[in-house]
Amino acid sequence: MDAKEWNEYVEKVATGAWPVPINMIKDQGNWMCRSIVGRALVFKEDLEGAMTVLSTVLDVEPNLDEAPEVGLSEAEHKTLCLRELGEIVYKLAHKPEAALQYIDAAFKLAREYQHPFRTGARGELWYRHLQLLTECGKQEQACEEARKMFREEQETSHAPKQDDPKSKINPYKYFSLKYLAEQEHVAGHIAEASSLLHQAFEFYPVSLAGEKDLAAANAINDPEERYKAYQHCATIQYLPWEKLPPAVIRRNV
């Protein structure tokens, strides 16, 4: 990608609807600028351009010790780039096997990073891994991996504090159970699917409004309708998955 091509991409994402500020993206030598431009091109549905830009980030080794109080960390930038590349490959080539390589690399990096994510991408990457395995014809393997993840998280998680329900939040448990519930639903085991989704929400970040929504879902007698109500709750991000550092919270109050 030469300077002329780069400047064309920058111009594209810095103009039109939802423009990105030019000072955030003009430096071609800064890989995080390329990360922003590439992901903005995905938003603008220029998938081939996005792949061209995001591919320049593949060899970058992010600093896993970096945890900025403002903006995304290097680890998050790289994780999101890998995720987008996987989705681009999936959309353009319709090859879940190839997409899975990028998604798995993104998930591995996300798991290695020991600081909070602002994007909430970690659990979703695990869920996408399971979905792509299924599309590769490996549903049985995906189900076993989901069960294994749940067991391992049960074994390694600290006991939740009774006065802090947020301490139970775990995206890997939630998305594992959500995936298993969906497989049971596809198989026609509606009551089991509904029960698994009910259990999954024990590990989901829920606000007061979310608690009311879930209580309403719990009260539905018909398993299919109850399952649909749970699925609707799953489309709502009531609270962030991960807490921001205290300094960031104070600044945003």
Description:
- It is built from twelve helices and no strands.
- The protein has 253 residues and is an all-alpha fold.
- The protein has a domain at 148-253.
- Helix 1 crosses helix 2.
- The N and C termini lie far apart (42 Å).
Write a brief caption for the model.
The chain has 253 residues and is mainly alpha-helical. 63% of the residues lie in helices and 0% in strands. The C terminus is likely disordered.
What attributes does this structure have?
single chain; 253 residues; mainly alpha; 12 helices; 63% helix; 0% strand; elongated; disordered C terminus
Largest sheet, if any? none
Report mean pLDDT, rounded to a whole number. 90
Gross geometry: elongated
Helix count, DSSP H or I runs of 4 or more residues:
12
Report the structural category.
mainly alpha
Order of helices and strands: HHHHHHHHHHHH
Measured distance between first and last alpha carbons = 42 Å
Any chance you could write out the topology, listing elements then pairs?
Elements: H1 3-14, H2 31-43, H3 47-54, H4 74-93, H5 96-112, H6 121-135, H7 139-156, H8 171-186, H9 190-200, H10 208-218, H11 223-234, H12 246-252
Helix pairs in contact: 1-2, 2-3, 2-4, 3-4, 4-5, 5-6, 6-7, 6-8, 7-8, 8-9, 9-11, 10-11
